[in-house]
Amino acid sequence: MKTAVLIFIILAIYKLPLLAQHYFTLGIGFSGAVLKSDDLNRFKDTYNLVNSPSLAKYMRGIDGAVGLRWEVGYRYMGRLGIAVLAGLQNYISKDAATYQNGETRSLELDMNSLFVEWELGHTRNQFFINGVITLFLNRKLILESKYSDTTKKEPLSGVYSSDATISTDLGIAIGIIRRQIILSGKITYPIFTGGKSSVLRDKRLEKIADGIDIFPADYADYCFEKTYDGVASDIDGLKVLVTIAFAIPLK
Q: What total number of domains does the chain contain?
């Protein structure tokens, strides 16, 4: 991340060339993320521990995620490259434990947000390398917990969601423009993620009345204690993104 910050500082004093091109862009991106959550890791470990005598396959943890991005924006391709992008971003991650009788407990985490992104960097011929700052807005997480045998009353089953938060990523982008098609790759890492004090919660009244509306960070405490900690909604991590965009020249 220090390299990306240095790029911003150096290129901020670069002079704009006399000849350059402005573009309106429409794009789609395919991305992967390495998610980090101490709470979800603790849930995985304690769930496997409590249920180990009955499990044929253990939970591996919700860490890797894949997603899509839809974006529109403005891009300036001159000696100094500038871009302002906005759109929608989502990520999905899944995990499951299988019992010896064939029944399963599955988890699916869905992360959705709006984003605004700024790029600043250097363009040479048809290639560019830019520093990137991304602001994720209205960031919401939904964790769905299911048990395969729906005839059993499973208190952990439900849809647990977060309040809307924001986060900020810093990174680097490398790309090329050919025949009004822009292909770029980005790597970003969160420098701030909101939601540390907000837990994933099932908002159904019966869950709240039973005191089990919060998704547990420790499955043993959930099973054997009257009170327990919840999974915080500051789940985030390293992101790798490949985007293809159609560039419309602006006069």
A: 1
